[in-house]
Structures are given as structure tokens and as C-alpha cells.
Write a structure and sequence with these properties.
It contains eleven helices and eleven strands. With 320 residues, the chain is an alpha/beta fold. It folds into two domains: 182 residues, Rossmann fold; 116 residues, Phosphofructokinase domain (Rossmann fold). Bound molecules: adenosine-5'-triphosphate.
């Protein structure tokens, strides 16, 4: 029977992590399970930095961005002796099971601990929406709202000056944030790892929009790590009728109060994690698939291809 569980956040932070911590804490306490917050991900676990969570420890946190527990990376956690030391620390403190909120690297850590006898459940926390086993991650919707708000503002000023705004958004090799932003903002072009990047095609399309369609502005949404948008902006100014301006949205996308959609998602996923641990299940990750909260083994999730976004790329093309 599970009597004490730990909760930690690991990898990059995301809005909604606090809501997930709150959900895990409150649902567990209401089930008679003690909860320990672990500071700074696996680093705090290794160093034994725990905090006993009361109901009030998570008061007024559900609407706060970031993570009250802090997050960190601990590359050494890939080593068996470090993992074993963490298991020892957990056992010394009577902690039977763990909820790990983070990305796929954090999931691998959770799987390793489960194999060593501490049941762990992974919750997907990242704005990048790049975690397998779920349609959406905690933080994605909030980041999307931030991107849409920023791009809407850029469009106002672009149209006054016959500009082409090239906007770089995050995503870490996943084009979802760019694609959803592009559709939501009515962008003229979207460049992601899935679309690939062809500079000549971009310039050609912009010349067409300028000369044939007589558009007075254009918005190009680009996924980070796809191309150098400062260089692209210069080429646009030189080779098309638009004046190119590059904007990197940067870490602003990672902050802010979680959206209601992320609050709902994090609350539902936190509940599911506690229910799984209560049933004695570990080594699983929680996801939302076709709007239903579900879970699958972390091993299966890590091997699964992400669901296709082909229909959304097609939609984007049909809306331009
Ligand atoms: P993000 O989406 O921000 O990249 P992430 O969870 O994937 O989140 P990582 O830096 O890859 O971020 O992993 C976070 C932590 O998880 C690492 O610092 C390390 O402690 C642990 N971790 C990563 N990969 C492994 C692994 N293969 N085995 C055990 N632990 C791992």
C-alpha cells in the first residue's frame, strides 16, 4: 500500500507545472497519502532536499507560472550508482512512489527508478508538445496563447509598414507550437522541422504575395532550430518588396499564468497519477488522447511515433 509519495519537476519548466503539483498533493492528501515535494528535480532527490507538503503548501499556486519546487538537470542521473543512491534516500525517508513532471529525459529517469523498485508515474510538462504518449503537454496551450498574442501585435505594426515579420517560436524539434500559432494567427507561411526549409521557395512565395496578391504585410512563423531568422529577414528585404523583420519570442513563451485549458489538463493528469500509484502501478506516463486522460507504459510511449499533424498542415495550406 502506498503511504508516502514524492513529487518533482524536471527538465525545462512550463506553465501548469504548479497546477499539476497542486493536483497531485491535494488528491493524495485526500486519499490519506503523505506527500513530499522534492526540490530541483533529480538533483534535489540525490541531495535529499524534500519538503513535507500540506494542503496549504499549494495554496494560491495553481495560477502561477514556473514551478514552486524548482527544476534542474542532473546528467549523472543516467548512471546506475546515482540512481541507486536516490532509491536509498527515498527508502530512508519512507517514500514508496514518485510523480515526475517533465519531458522524455525525465521519463527515462522515472523508468529507471521504477525498475529499481520505486514506482514512478510521468506527467508531460513542457511547452514544446514534443512528448510521446499524449496529444498535448502541460504548458503548450499557455505558450500558444502567448505566441498568438505577440503575433497579433506584430501583425498590426507590420501592416502599417509593408513589412514581413518572421517570428521564431519554441518547439525543440517539434513544429506544433509554430503550426498552431500559424493557423491561429492566419500567418502566410509556416516553417517547421516537418515542412523543411527552402529559402528560394520562401522568397518566391513572398514576391508572389507582394506582386500578385498585393498584400501589405506577411507573417512567417518559424520553429526554433530550423533556420537563422535574422539572415532570412535580410534576404527578404533584399529580394522581395517587403521589409523583413525578425522577432525571436524566446523565454517569454515559458512564463505566465497557465491558461484554463492547461489548468484543467494538469489537474486531471495529477489526479490520474495518484490513482495509478494507489493501484500499485509504476513505469507509466499519463497522457490525453482524443480528449480522454489515459496512461501507457513509459517504454511504449518512448517508442511510439507522435500522432500525425498532416491534416493540420493541409488545413494551413487551404487557409492561406
Ligand atoms: P525538456 O522537455 O525540458 O527537455 P526533459 O525531461 O526531456 O525536459 P532532459 O534534460 O532531457 O529534459 O532530462 C531531465 C533530467 O532527466 C536529466 O537532467 C537527467 O537527470 C534525467 N534523465 C535524462 N535522460 C535520462 C536517462 N536516459 N536515464 C536516466 N535519467 C535521465
Amino acid at each position: 500500500m502506498v503511504r508516502k509519495i514524492g513529487v518533482l519537476t524536471s527538465g525545462g519548466d512550463a506553465p501548469g507545472m504548479n497546477t499539476a503539483i497542486r493536483s497531485v498533493t491535494r488528491v493524495a492528501l485526500n486519499n490519506g497519502i503523505e506527500v513530499y515535494g522534492i526540490y530541483d528535480g533529480y538533483r534535489g532527490l540525490l541531495e535529499g532536499r524534500f519538503m513535507k507538503m500540506e494542503r496549504s503548501s499549494v495554496s494560491e499556486t495553481l495560477n502561477r507560472g514556473g514551478t514552486i519546487l524548482g527544476s534542474a538537470r542532473l546528467p549523472e542521473f543516467r548512471e546506475l550508482d546515482v540512481q541507486e543512491k536516490c532509491v536509498e534516500t527515498l527508502k530512508e525517508n519512507g517514500i514508496d512512489a514518485l510523480v515526475v513532471i517533465g519531458g522524455d529525459g525525465s521519463y527515462r529517469g522515472a523508468l529507471a527508478l521504477t525498475r529499481l523498485g520505486i514506482n514512478c508515474i510521468g506527467l508531460p510538462g513542457t511547452i514544446d508538445n514534443d512528448i510521446p504518449g499524449t496529444d498535448f503537454t502541460i504548458g503548450f496551450d499557455t505558450a500558444l496563447n502567448t505566441c498568438v498574442e505577440c503575433v497579433d501585435k506584430l501583425r498590426d505594426t507590420s501592416s502599417s509598414h509593408h513589412r514581413c515579420s518572421i517570428v521564431e517560436v519554441m518547439g525543440n524539434h517539434c513544429g506544433d507550437l509554430a503550426l498552431y500559432t500559424a493557423i491561429s494567427c492566419g500567418a502566410e507561411m509556416v516553417i517547421t522541422p516537418e515542412t523543411g526549409y527552402d529559402e528560394l521557395e520562401v522568397l518566391e512565395k513572398l514576391r508572389y504575395l507582394d506582386q500578385a496578391i498585393h498584400k501589405n504585410h506577411a507573417i512567417v512563423i518559424v520553429s526554433e532550430k530550423t533556420t537563422d531568422i535574422q539572415a532570412l529577414a535580410k534576404k527578404i528585404s533584399l529580394n522581395t518588396g517587403f521589409s523583413g523583420r525578425a522577432t525571436v519570442l524566446g523565454h517569454i513563451q515559458r512564463g505566465g499564468a497557465p491558461s484554463p485549458t492547461d489548468r484543467m489538463l494538469a489537474s486531471r493528469m495529477g489526479e490520474k497519477a495518484v490513482d495509478l500509484l494507489t493501484e500499485g502501478i509504476g513505469g507509466q506516463c499519463v497522457g490525453i488522447i482524443d480528449n480522454e486522460i489515459s496512461s501507457m507504459s513509459i517504454e511504449d510511449a518512448l517508442e511510439r511515433p507522435r500522432s500525425s499533424r498532416k491534416h493540420l498542415y493541409r488545413l494551413f495550406d487551404r487557409l492561406v
